[in-house]
Design the sequence.
């Protein structure tokens, strides 16, 4: 990338970010791109409207689920070192691991944890433990609180529980806490100099907080909970860092596991393995999964991606191996994910000249909707599907297991626990689009808003997939 191209990217970022943030009441946003040896970071707005602190190029933020690629890298490091085997049962290393479904834990392999194919039904399980034994407390809690959605390796469902279990596995085989291991084996060798794993460390430097729109005025209000419990560390609750740090991590995966400073972080074989397809649901709304990475196809170009929600914030990391490009961004309201998608698509089409094909081209009216009607469930979540005016209507209800989990979940989503009913129109059998979105809005990252149904038996779908997560017919 020459200086002129870099200047064009920087100018475009500044204009696009400012316009979106002003129009959509996003307090602050920071984004950076590395391309072919050049790098630029652009910051806009306010990091915390309670203090008025500005969002700067080196402002820290919660990585959220972007952490899952860091956790997966740690797992592959232990495989490189011979401490873990991808195809060994998890119970080989964690004999105490159990689920409420009898015998289910014994079938789950290490590979299933980091490819989101484990079937553990724990997506909203938030035990509130702190400190060195938090991950142990999480695993202990699975035995009495969480079952399975499907047989391991048979489906794909985005899995916080799998990643947290992987974090506990790492603690057992290395003897280090997840946080100490992250600092020793990722932050230090990658050169993530401004990254940490606790609010106590983050407060010593500039750190953004999340915000939620006020239901009445839509103006942004700061979150009342900075981060999720320590039990969710390996899934994304606790790691904090900067755009430059995430770009350095992305560059390490661009360079076959070698950090920008020249340090070997991961073997070339393991780095490549993370980027290969490990499971494909073969539906447009769920991109093929690697290990840790989600593989978004944009025509012939693959974008390795992971996004991360934190209370009132959203981060994203995109790695484009074919174009020697990394994009990282953070916005401090949930709606900033739309801007992240717009920036990615601008980089692809305008900067790189990649043709972005239409993912869905038309909706269909004459499709039998009855196979999809019914109630679908997963951990503490109920989705009721009915037919209204020739469309599917969804009603999502959160059913908390206890007051502690309800409190954490409520703060995580900004207060509301019941979404208004959402209508869907059919694209083709088993694939539906939310009403009110132009079809081209699904061409990029927001393809996750499409909903698919799977495993038709006796004329009824057994699974619903929304946002990469499965719920099972009750």
Sequence:
């Amino acid at each position: 990338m020459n200086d002129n191209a870099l200047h064009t990217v920087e100018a475009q970022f500044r204009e696009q970010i400012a316009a979106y943030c002003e129009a959509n009441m996003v307090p602050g946003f920071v984004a950076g791109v590395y391309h072919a040896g050049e790098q630029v970071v652009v910051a806009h707005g306010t990091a915390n409207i309670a203090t008025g602190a500005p969002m700067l190029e080196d402002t820290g933020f919660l990585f959220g689920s972007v952490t899952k690629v860091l956790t997966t890298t740690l797992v592959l490091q232990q495989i490189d070192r011979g401490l873990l085997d991808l195809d060994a049962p998890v119970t080989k290393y964690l004999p105490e691991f159990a689920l409420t479904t009898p015998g289910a834990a014994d079938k789950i392999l290490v590979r299933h944890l980091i490819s989101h194919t484990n079937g553990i039904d724990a997506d909203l399980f938030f035990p509130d433990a702190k400190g060195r034994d938090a991950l142990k407390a999480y695993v202990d809690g699975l035995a009495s609180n969480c079952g399975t959605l499907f047989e391991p390796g048979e489906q794909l469902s985005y899995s916080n529980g799998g990643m947290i279990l992987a974090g506990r596995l790492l603690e057992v085989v290395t003897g280090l806490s997840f946080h100490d291991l992250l600092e020793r084996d990722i932050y230090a060798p990658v050169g993530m100099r401004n990254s940490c794993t606790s609010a106590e460390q983050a407060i010593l430097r500039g750190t953004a907080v999340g915000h939620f729109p006020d239901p009445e005025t839509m103006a942004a209000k700061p979150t009342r909970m900075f981060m999720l419990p320590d039990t969710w560390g390996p899934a994304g609750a606790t790691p904090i860092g900067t755009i430059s740090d995430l770009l350095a991590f992305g560059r390490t995966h661009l360079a076959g596991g070698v950090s920008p400073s020249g340090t070997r972080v991961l073997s070339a074989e393991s780095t490549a393995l993370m980027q290969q397809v490990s499971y494909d649901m073969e539906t447009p709304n769920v991109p093929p999964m690697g290990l840790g990475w989600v593989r978004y196809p944009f025509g012939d170009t693959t974008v390795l991606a992971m996004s991360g929600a934190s209370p009132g914030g959203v981060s994203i990391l995109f790695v484009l191996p074919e174009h020697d490009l990394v994009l990282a961004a953070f916005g401090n309201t949930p709606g900033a994910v739309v801007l992240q998608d717009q920036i990615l698509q601008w980089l692809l089409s305008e900067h790189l000249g990649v043709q972005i094909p239409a993912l869905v081209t038309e909706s269909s009216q004459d499709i039998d909707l009855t196979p999809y009607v019914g109630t679908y469930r997963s951990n503490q979540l109920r989705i009721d599907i009915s037919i209204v005016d020739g469309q599917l209507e969804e009603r999502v209800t959160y059913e908390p297991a206890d007051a502690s989990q309800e409190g954490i979940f409520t703060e995580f989503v900004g207060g509301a626990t019941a979404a208004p009913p959402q209508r869907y129109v059919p694209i083709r059998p088993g694939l539906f689009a939310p009403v009110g979105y132009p079809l081209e809005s699904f061409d990029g990252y927001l393809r996750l808003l499409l909903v698919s149904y799977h495993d038709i038996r006796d004329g009824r779908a057994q699974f619903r997939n929304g946002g990469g997560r499965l719920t099972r017919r009750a």
